[in-house]
Each structure stands twice: as structure tokens, then as C-alpha cells.
Amino acid sequence: MTISAGIAVRTAAALALILVGSAVAAALLWRLARPRMRRQRWTGVNYRGQRIIATSGLLVVAVGVASASVVAALARRATGWFAYVSGSIGRAPAEVFEGSGPLDLVPTDALRTPPVASATGAVATASALVAFGLLGYRDDTRGDGDASGFAAHLARSLRTRRLTTGAQKALGGGAVALLSVQILLFGNVAVLWSSRGWGDGYAVMRSFEHLVIGSHESWTMIPWLRGAAVVALSANLLNLLDRAPGRATKAALAWWLCGLVPAAVFGSPWPQGFRFAEVGAGWFAWHSPALWAAGAVGAAVGLLRSELAEAHMLGDTGVNPLGAALGLATVAMSPASVEWAVLAFLAALNLASERWSFSRIIDAVPPLRWLDRLGSPYRN
Prior knowledge:
By secondary structure, the chain is mainly alpha-helical. The protein has one domain (5-373). The protein is 62% helix and 2% strand. The chain has 15 helices and two strands. A two-stranded antiparallel sheet has the order 1-2. A hairpin with a 5-residue loop joins strand 1 (43-45) and strand 2 (51-53).
């Protein structure tokens, strides 16, 4: 579908509204919650040896989930709550899947309308935010601080015969990534609110069948695993960057602004195979997957000033779900070729972190060092 100038402007305005609104909400929540977050369990030692609040990422999760819910509510204005277009299941016409290769199967159980696609995307994003946030929170509050990196956690787990919290986070994150991508690409959550209702046991059974395995004609292994790998590696990458105040937030904002926003404003919002029939132009802007990540990114931006002042740090509680939300939006907005490239790039960075320090690399490159320390009163 060709994006008109009017729709592009509306999409940009929607993105800005969600980002700024989430930033303001997170900043206000921080002012209210700060006195209550000083409990010993929620604090940690930062890079300068000072004890500060270490789980302010809880606010990122809360605002991100609320934002995804708002986006879903606004998106439904196009054709009504959870409208569902029934149709034959199978390979859809090639023109529906802009940018996808002829051999790359994509979710075709939907001939879904954008409200349904947006609803399932919001459910996937909210699920990932909550689950990755809980895994990160466990690592922040009960973490094994003397192990760093997946290889180190795995080695220690094998040596002690007990999974470290880092290993639990890695394995749990992989499972959450698989589930969230399943919901995003194949699970038809909207069928749960079908006209048959909850009183029909068969309808409920079919609903959960769609959620877990999709339909046998459309469910494919490669897009599912590829998308889950992107989500899991995205979450871990931001975690690896979170070694200095504000670094992960700046990286997330750059990812969103340079990658997702241009794709949302100038490109097709759903290269993965969802069509936009019967959608009013006025509400088309609320169907972009970039909006799902906007809430979490905006919340992190709203906390950036106080984070740079070293009043708190997001911790794994915040940066892991932030990366997962960005990964999910990237999966939804990318054709297969781009998604493969993103996956290779993320895998290379994650593997490189096992051998080289990102902090040393950043300090060795003047432009990166300047951006990394921008706004920090203690690192200039």
C-alpha cells in the first residue's frame, strides 16, 4: 500500500504523541515512586561504587504496557473491536506481502484487519515487557554478580549444578521470545472474543489452538525462530550496553528513531503480510508496530535525565524488556531479507561481547565517546 503524505504526517504525529506522553508519564511516576523505591532490595552499587536505586526499569515496564494498551484501543477505531476477516487459509497473493521472497512463508491466517493485527501485536509487546521485566528483576535482586556474559553463566551453572540467575534469564528470555513472536505473527488472540463467546467450549479450544500453534497451513518454523532470535538477542544487546548511565537508553532511542520511525512514516507498516482493506485513513496511523515500542522507549527517555544524574539505573528490569519491545517491532516491520540482516548483526554483536568490552570500544572512538557521555555530569 502506498503511504500518502497525509497518512505519513498522522503516523509521525502518533509516534511523537506516544513517545512524549510516555516520557512525561514516566518522569511523573519517578517523582512519585522515588521515596518508595529506596528499599534495600531495590538498590544496587553503580560503576562508581555508590548505592542507588537499581530497579527503576519497573517504571519502563509499567508505562510500556499501559502505552501498548492505549495504542490497541485507538487502533480499534478503524473497524471496531477485534474485527476479524475470515477467509481461506494458505499462501496469500504475492502482492499482499510487500518485500517478502516467494519461498518465505508468512502468516496468512489473516487476512486479518489492522485492528486485529494491532491487538495481537499489543498483546505480544505487553507480554514480552512483563516477562522480560520479571526475569530482569529477579537477576537485579537475586543476581549472581560475579558472573558476566552468557558463557560465564553457563560455565558456572555447569560447575555448581545450579542455574545462575543469568542463565535463568537467558533460557527464560528465549522461551518468552518464542511465545511473543508466536502471538505476534501467528496467534489469533482476537478469536477469543469471537461471536461464539466463552460459553462455546469448541470456540475456546480453537482460540487457544490458534494461539499456540497457529493453523497448519500458515504456521512455519523459520519465520517463528528467526523472529524469536531477533527478540532475544535485542533484549540481550541492550543489557550488554547497560554498563554506563544512560547508554542503553540512548542506544534504544537511536534504534527507534533511525530504524523504526522512518519505516513507519515512509514504508508499509506491516511487510509481514497484513493487508489494510477497509481502513479509514484517519486511523491508519495507529496501526504501525513502531507505536508498540514507543511507550517503553519514551518511558526510558523520561527517566534519562535522572539516570544520567545517577539517581537510579534501569537495571536488567528495564533494559531487557526495552530491547525485547524494539526487537518485536523490528520483526513486525521488516521483510525477510532485512530481518535476516538484522539477525546477523545482532548475533555478531552478542558474540563479540564475549571477547571484547563495548565500553573500551566506545571510549576508543571519539564520536561514540562524546555521545556516550553527553548529559552525564560525572563522566565528562
